[in-house]
Design goal:
The structure holds 3 protein chains of 3 kinds. By secondary structure, chain A is mainly alpha-helical. Chain A has a domain of 99 residues: Orthogonal Bundle (Rna Polymerase Sigma Factor, Chain: A), CATH 1.10.1740.10. Chain A has 9 helices and no strands. In chain A, α2 packs across α3, α2 packs across α4 and α3 packs across α4. Chain A is globular, with a radius of gyration of 18 Å. The N terminus of chain A is likely disordered. Chain B starts with 5 loop residues before the first helix and ends in a 5-residue tail after the last strand. The longest helix of chain B has 17 residues. By secondary structure, chain B is of the alpha+beta class. Chain C is an all-alpha fold. Chain C has one domain. In chain C, α4 runs antiparallel to α5, α5 packs across α6 and α9 packs parallel to α11. The chains are: A mainly alpha, B alpha+beta, C mainly alpha. Chains B and C meet through α2, α3, α4 and β6 of B and α1, α2, α3, α4 and α5 of C.
């Protein structure tokens, strides 16, 4: 951390300081949300490199349009919306590049100390299954169950209607059920 | 929640909810980009004005009026802050004294990168003490090209400072490196 | 061209909404830069930004040219030259270089120091210290007549020995005084560099973290 930037300050206070020219205050916001949103990006995009790029991009875009953040107290949610969009763009780019959903790095990230090999395998299965979902379904599933957002929040972030989101979540669960049953019965 | 292999779903979500930690260098990389934007924005007025003027012939009247009202560069955020490199702490200013011995001069001003070379009446006007001209001003951290302007027309480099190399339009100028204060 | 117009207008709107500006457009700017000059400068600045080159130093060069009474074409030449020099510096110093390091490196390149030498110095010093001042002093002593090779070696030895910015500033002052007193520039630089190189092991340079 470079110098005092008020880690105890609220999002609104930090946003105000940044808008008044104290650019370094932005680093406190970066630290605050970096790991939280990295998780979503990593699972959504399937690899750390793309996730970091999308997250960096999101933070940069958020800075650029900071004056348009209507509710600075909810900077986090506003940033998340930007990140979700960046992940969509990044995912689309990945498809155009013809790359498959790579899991290796994600699988290694949180290997259990007690049962590393088993945990890694289980992790790989999960990530592979996630990769089989469509981007819309994966997004909806992660937001609903991993990030534990309500449907209203999800609608606000994604711009998609609640009923469409519910349908995507249900289809994601159906698909995952099939995929994971196949794995378990193999 | 769908009633299928609830245990499997819960285990899956539990696994996916493990925190993901990024390297601290991530913050640094983001802030490098952010500080670049900050630094560029300080001059975006002239850039936007340049761009608008470049295409002025093709824009409708309302856009021309908008372009005409674009403001030029202003100095933003000269707020004292912690120590570090310029990009690391854009915004910190350090008091600097400029001195020129010129007993025969009628006026001496200091202009440079730190005050838009005096455009917009931002020149630092020096005071005369028996032929020793001096002025102090807060200058933001970084490297700056500057010169003394004697009698409103003669460009003089600072004899006590490093010379600035570079295309100087045939006039002498000096280099000033202002470093952040350490804590 | 329509994209560029849209982008310019967007930039104008962003300025209005994002910042409270307090100074009216300087009429001298619009009077002193004709349309072709403004167009040429915009293209250079736009291209520089696309290459990741900081544009602030380019704008400072525009102001300098205007203040010094240069005509539009002269300003365009100067800005283009600086862009090339900063581009060279950017290629060898990489993304870790700060805007100030790039500015100072561009000065050194303009003075005749090969950019590759600056890259070697950056690799040698790593991220431990800023090379803004060493590059500035390098440009200065070359402009005072120290041959490029001798000047580069002197600065390299100082940086390599862990000399602080204050030591390098003192080195510059001593060399310039020696040269003014009649010393051969190369001899002055070599002698002073030997004296200024710190004999003790490197310590952590917290000043530049």
């Amino acid at each position: 951390m470079e110098g005092p930037t008020g880690m105890d300050s609220s999002d609104a206070a930090l946003v105000a300081r940044v808008l008044h020219g104290e650019v370094n205050a932005y680093s406190a916001l970066v630290s605050r949300y970096r790991d939280k949103y990295a998780r979503y990006a990593v699972h959504m995009l399937g690899n750390r490199e793309d996730a970091e790029e999308a997250l960096q991009d999101a933070f940069t875009r958020a800075y650029r349009s900071l004056a348009r953040c209507e509710d600075p107290e909810r900077f986090g949610a506003w940033l998340f919306r930007i990140l979700v969009n960046r992940c969509r763009t990044s995912g689309a780019r990945r498809v155009r590049r013809g790359q498959t959903f790579v899991h290796d790095e994600t699988a290694l990230l949180n290997a259990s100390e007690e049962h590393p090999a088993e945990q890694t395998m289980w992790r790989e299965e999960i990530e592979r299954a996630l990769g089989e979902l469509s981007a819309d379904q994966r997004e909806a599933f992660l937001l609903k169950y991993v990030e534990e957002l309500g449907y209203d929040e999800m609608a606000e972030i994604t711009g998609v209607g609640v009923s469409a989101l519910k349908m995507r979540v249900m289809r994601a669960c159906d698909r995952l059920r099939v995929l994971l049953r196949e794995v378990h019965s193999a | 929640m769908p009633d299928w292999g609830r245990t499997t779903l819960e285990l899956m979500v539990q696994e996916l909810q493990h925190p993901v930690r990024l390297d601290e260098s991530f913050d640094r990389r983001v802030m490098v980009r952010v500080r670049r934007i900050y630094a560029e924005r300080r001059h975006r007025g002239i850039i936007g004005w340049l761009g608008a003027a470049a295409s002025i012939s093709r824009r409708p009247a309302w856009a021309a009026a908008l372009a005409a009202s674009v403001v030029a560069v202003v100095s933003i955020g000269l707020i004292p802050h912690g120590g570090g490199k310029r990009d690391a702490h854009v915004g910190q200013t350090i008091p600097v004294q400029f001195v020129l011995v010129a007993p025969d001069a009628r006026s001496v001003a200091v202009v440079g990168d730190f005050n838009n070379w005096g455009l917009g009446d931002t020149a630092l006007v020096a005071e005369n003490h028996n032929g020793v001209w001096s002025v102090s001003a807060p200058v933001h951290t970084g490297v700056h090209r500057y010169a003394f302007l004697v009698n409103g027309k003669q460009w003089v480099a600072d004899p006590t400072a490093p010379r600035a190399a570079g295309d100087d339009f045939g006039q002498p100028s000096s280099a000033l490196v202002v470093e952040a204060s350490t804590q | 061209m329509r994209m560029r117009t849209t982008r310019s207008l967007l930039a104008l709107l962003l300025i209005g909404s994002a910042f409270r500006t307090t100074e009216a457009q300087d009429p001298r700017l619009s009077n002193r830069l004709d349309a072709p000059t403004r167009k040429a400068l915009f293209a250079i600045v736009d291209s520089a930004r696309a290459q990741g080159i900081p544009v602030e130093p380019l704008m400072e060069k525009v102001y300098q040219g205007l203040a010094m009474g240069a005509d539009g074409s002269r300003i365009v030449v100067a800005v283009r030259s600086l862009t090339l020099e900063m581009g060279n510096a950017h290629r060898v110093l990489g993304a870790v270089a700060t805007t100030d390091e790039l500015k100072a490196a561009a000065s050194a390149v303009h003075a005749g120091v090969p950019a590759v030498e600056l890259g070697k110095m950056k690799k040698q010093s790593g991220l431990r210290r800023s090379l803004t001042l060493p590059f500035t002093v390098l440009a200065d002593i070359v402009s005072r007549g120290v041959p490029v090779a001798a000047a580069t070696n002197a600065i390299k030895s100082l940086v390599g020995a862990g000399a602080k910015d204050k030591d390098i500033s003192d080195f510059q002052r001593n060399v310039s005084v020696d040269i003014e007193k009649g010393a051969q520039p190369a001899a002055a630089a070599e002698t002073r560099a030997k004296g200024a190189s710190a004999p003790t092991p490197k310590t952590e340079d917290r000043e530049h973290e």
